[in-house]
Amino acid sequence: MAFLCFIYYMKEKPLPLLVFLVLLQTTFLFGQSVEKTVKFDQNYVETPLPIVLEAIENQSEIRFFYKEEWGIEAFLVNGKKGEDALETIKNLLNTYGFSIVPYRDLLVLVNQEGLEAYRYEQWDEDDLNLKEYQLIGTGKPENSNLPVTLTGQIKDAGENEALIGASIQVVDSSEGVVTDLDGNYELSIIPGKYKLLVQYAGYEPKSIDVQVINSGELNVELFNETLKLEEFTITARSQDVSVSEKIAGREILDIAVIRSLPTFMGEVDPIKSLISLPGVSSVGEGTSGFNVRGGDPGQNLVMMDGAIVYNSSHLFGFFGAFNSDLIRDVEIYKGGGPANYGGRVSSVLNVNLRNGNSQGIDVQGGIGLISSRLLVEGPLKKDKTTFLLSGRTAYPNWMLKQMKDPDLYQSAAGFYDVNFKINHIIDDKNVLTFSSYLSDDNFEFASDTAYVWKTKLGILKWAHRFSNKFLMQTQVVASDFQSDIRNTQESYDFDYSSGILNYQGKVDFSYELGTAHKVDFGVSSLYYAFNNGDFNPGSENTTAEEIHIPEEYALESAIYLNDEFVISSKASLVYGIRVSNYLALGGSYYDFDPNRPRSNASVTDTLSFGSSEVAKSYIGFEPRASFRWLVTPSSSLKVSYYRTNQYIHLISNTAAISPVNYWKSSGYNLSPSIADQYTVGLFKNWKDNLFEISVEGYYKNTQQVVDYKNAASILLNENLDADLIQGEGRAYGVEFLLRKNRGKLTGWLGYTYSRSLRRFDESPFEEEKINGGSFFAANYDKPHDLSLVMNYKVSRRFAMNLNFAYSTGRPITVPVSKFQYEDILSVLNFSDRNQYRVPDYHRLDLSFTLKSGLKKEKAIDGEWVFSVYNVYGRKNPFSVYFTQRGNAFQLSVLGSAFPSISYNFKL
């Protein structure tokens, strides 16, 4: 439904006289001509005008909006059944000095004397032609030669969702802007008459004639495009964003792009889509997390609507933690990002969820071979309060039962997650949002060991607009992530649990100093409670003993200031400073003899702190800057520097995130990691943004990265500090991207050459060095990484998608010799850490999408998606393992092609 309104404000008073807002559908009575009439359906004698207007609304599609304080109840209507109702009302209004002025297909009621107030010396009497122009602003501009500000929001007319990156341009002029993440824009313009063109990929462009008098608001709604496919792109990105974007290393993937990629078992995964971008990779199939520019998975700040998510996947990484039906877009900063982000040294990923439909109830979902999902959304109060409720579940057990391996057909797996979001517009200055997320994963291996992950997340946001230039957003978050391992063997049944609980509060401000200058600033505080491990015997018959690792607590706070401004028509700068403070609270720590390697034998003292006592305090200064220079209107050079601090560490002795990994606080013996990243990049678009190409290089140095000693014990280690070491991380690389944005064939080719190295040589003791203190390849070091993504629109209903990935095999440690000793069959001597590699990785995925018929009036809008993951059945090795005798065998998580079919629908 398209909502069109026209409001007149008099010169001296905000609303001195009657103003009618007329709401129309495309089939509105006056949709084709204002000459059409409405007849009275009864006789009226001295009837107040509001009663008559309500009756007209009930018998037609016309809608009238007015305020009671305008006093229209004093206007009394006299009319007979069958008479022209609008003509009668027009004659009545004339007696009070009002008239009806036609404006396109609208009827706007104004006072003729009030209309004179808009005429002033710069324009002649015919300038205010209401049949052609929409007025913006009121009164008379102080100086018609100085710019005023046009603001507003651009939205999807059907879904009522903000459109990110939509453009609003002044025709026959170079002036124009794009909308921000909330769909808002701000355009500086000289008072006068203009034709504005509003465009967004995949939507019908809209031309609007305006007469700008003073600063004012213009909201625009766009409809989905029904033209030929060649005339719009598949992405929701502004087509020149790679060139115009001010912040280096930032990428935004719209949900339409994410859905176009081939899927595993029919489930769309935003995280997997990011891996096709240069600089982003994963260790392999069946792994959680992702790696960005040489960092490990625990160095990525993953957020949903601004709240931290500690587990970004389901079922060991085969499924993503985010329901694609909810997602508005996925935003990633491959550096530290602007100063409002902090706490991780590798990247920032924010999955932005959309609000519910404010116009009507929508139901959508999907049914697949091993998972299904359902979403319901709609208004609780139209144009005021919306809700969104979704759920997903997986049921792979029927597939496991078909396996021949007894370890597999006796296993069981599954997950579910639930999202709920409610958005309430209090008034034009205040919006309140609450959202929650619950998830539960379980995997039971061969009927004896069960792995369970659980996430609980709640987010409350309040957005307040002090003015069109000054905004505030307050957010409160509660998050709880727990991981459990349960063994049900009679002689050794136990329950092991670990987790992290946090509460966060933050306030962010944004102030527009001008159309080309914006300042963001704010404060945040994050409280942590770390469960480092609890081991509880399951029964009295077990031989296991109870073990409890003391909890740790911490408070991480920060203030920041971020300044973004356009220096000139070519140069822009985004810079800022973040100051963070970390307080390690409570816990038990050991003092070690500095003349001996850290171990249980070198402990000299035990220090215990209460839950509110400060065991250690850290302060971090984190400057950031990103400079963009427009070499030409279609090419740019970007240079950036980021410093970030990370105070919590993901403890792992595996290449990928697993149930036995857990988060640990910096504290008495463990220091925070500090990273400095430098980037430089060239970006070029040509053929009217049809193609874009970019080359970006980076260098990152990380201090105090965490690793473990050889033969370290990670789980249930009360003296874990003795087995952890800290050293230097070094990563560098070049990223190349070629993208085609429009046409039947779209997609991109990405290639990255990179290295990720580590060195641990700070200790004087050989036991606390790795590989003799020399640099060695990190677990996720993959020098060559290539991705090819292609989407071909065969017709309006049928599309084909291809994804090809190639990468260097990841590093591993292997035995280089062996010997026999007495009754021991073999003793293996291993190489230095990560000196060898598994074979190279490559995989091809295909998918085919068939949409339902093109009739607009259909009960279900659906599509069938058929996909094949790993088309040619490549047995890509996840790792290579060795028997006690030193015999090698290769583990392939997915060693064959995996076809799937799913049906997605929307009611």
UniProtKB/TrEMBL annotation:
Classification via InterPro entries: CarboxyPept-like_regulatory, Plug_dom, Plug_dom_sf, TonB-dep_rcpt-like
GO CC, any one term: cell outer membrane
Subcellular location: Cell outer membrane
Chief location of this protein within or outside the cell: membrane
Ranges for domain TonB-dependent receptor plug: 273-344
Membrane topology: Multi-pass membrane protein
Keywords of this entry: Cell outer membrane, Membrane, Receptor, Transmembrane, Transmembrane beta strand, Transport
Family: Belongs to the TonB-dependent receptor family.
Name of the featured protein: Outer membrane receptor proteins, mostly Fe transport
Organism in which the protein naturally occurs: Algoriphagus locisalis
Upper lineage: Bacteria, Pseudomonadati, Bacteroidota, Cytophagia, Cytophagales
